[in-house]
């Protein structure tokens, strides 16, 4: 017999955490649902994290084994940047879901290095993996991809399990809000969950557009570098409202209409 949906219904933690942490949990659970909704999830693999407001070096991440479509605010695991579990729900059944080691290695490194970053998203989509494997990387071939004209790159070193990789990940991300992990996938960061999600959505769209154009075999139209640079600058902080902030409430309303259980 298949598992009952109640098997994954975790008692709410709302009364035992601060209002700020609860809101962070709701936003992060929503992000997992949206990543799945927009076709960017990889079953139980990959991870999204958010810093716990008011707690140094603590962040929330998914329980390894749950599908993105199942994530709720109460089911998230609180860990520190060294991978120590600070708070974990009692999951029913024998699996006792923990935390993906690669999740804490990647996310812990970034959260420890920059307290301004609230959210980190990592994906293994087919467009992201394909572009990450191209020597040319992401091309500034349209307005959307020009937003990432100065994106960082991190060379593949194997599955991200070794703590020695952390310094190089942080170095290669630099001051960018996006990183292409060579032969691996995509990563974005943001000061809010909405900003990180918006960056990932647009980065994914850029990869899809590039692969579609390259698949035609036709010569791509090159945009003058000065125009690329000016367009990139228009997307940078300080030029306008941070991307993703305005859309986030609408995305939450979208989820509420479809399935509000992420708030549980």
Question: Could you provide a short overview of the structure?
Answer:
The protein is built from eight helices and eight strands. By secondary structure, it is α+β, with helices and mostly antiparallel strands. A hairpin with a 6-residue loop joins strand 1 (47-51) and strand 2 (58-61).
Q: What is the tally of beta strands? A: 8
Q: Given the structure, what is the number of helices? A: 8
Q: What is the helical fraction, as a range of percent?
A: 25-40%
Helix-and-strand structural type: alpha+beta
Largest sheet: 8 strands, mixed
Mean pLDDT: 91
Outline type: globular
User: How do the strands of the widest beta sheet line up side by side?
Assistant: 4-3-2-1-5-8-7-6
What is the alpha-carbon Rg in Å? Answer: 18 Å
InterPro entries: Aldolase-II_Adducin_sf, Aldolase_II/adducin_N, Aldolase_II/adducin_N_sf
Family: Belongs to the aldolase class II family.
Protein name: Class II aldolase/adducin family protein
Pfam families: Aldolase_II (PF00596)
Structure characterization notes:
This protein has 264 residues and is α+β, with helices and mostly antiparallel strands. The chain is built from 8 helices and 8 strands. It has helices at residues 19-37, 101-113, 126-132, 143-146, 166-173, 193-215, 225-234, 248-258, and strands at 47-51, 58-61, 77-80, 85-87, 119-123, 152-154, 178-181, 185-190. It has an 8-stranded mixed sheet, sandwiched between helices. A hairpin with a 6-residue loop joins strand 1 and strand 2 (58-61). Helix 1 (19-37) packs parallel to helix 6 (193-215). It is globular and about 55 Å long. The relative contact order is 0.15. Residues 1-5 have low confidence and may be disordered.
């Amino acid at each position: 017999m298949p598992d009952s949906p109640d098997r994954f219904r975790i008692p709410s933690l709302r009364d035992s955490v601060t209002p700020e942490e609860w809101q962070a949990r709701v936003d992060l659970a929503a992000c997992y649902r949206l990543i799945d909704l927009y076709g960017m999830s990889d079953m139980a693999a990959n991870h999204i994290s958010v810093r716990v407001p008011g707690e140094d070096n603590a962040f929330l991440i998914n329980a390894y084994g749950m599908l993105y479509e199942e994530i709720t605010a109460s089911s998230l695991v609180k860990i520190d940047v060294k991978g120590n579990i600070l708070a974990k729900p009692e999951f029913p059944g024998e699996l006792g879901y923990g935390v993906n080691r690669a999740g804490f290695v990647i996310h812990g490194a970034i959260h420890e290095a920059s307290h301004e970053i609230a959210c980190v998203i990592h994906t293994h989509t087919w467009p992201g993996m394909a572009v990450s494997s191209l020597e040319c990387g992401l091309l500034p071939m349209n307005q959307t991809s020009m937003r990432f004209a100065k994106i960082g790159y991190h060379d593949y070193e194997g599955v991200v399990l070794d703590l020695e990789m952390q310094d190089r990940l942080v170095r290669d991300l630099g001051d960018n809000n996006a990183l292409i992990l060579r032969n691996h996938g995509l990563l974005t960061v943001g000061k809010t969950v909405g900003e990180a999600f918006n960056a990932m959505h647009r980065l994914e769209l850029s990869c899809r557009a590039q692969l579609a154009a390259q698949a035609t075999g036709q010569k791509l139209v090159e945009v003058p570098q000065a125009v690329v640079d000016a367009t990139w600058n228009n997307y940078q902080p300080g030029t306008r409202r941070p991307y993703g902030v305005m859309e986030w409430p609408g995305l939450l309303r979208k989820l509420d209409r479809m399935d509000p259980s992420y708030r549980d």
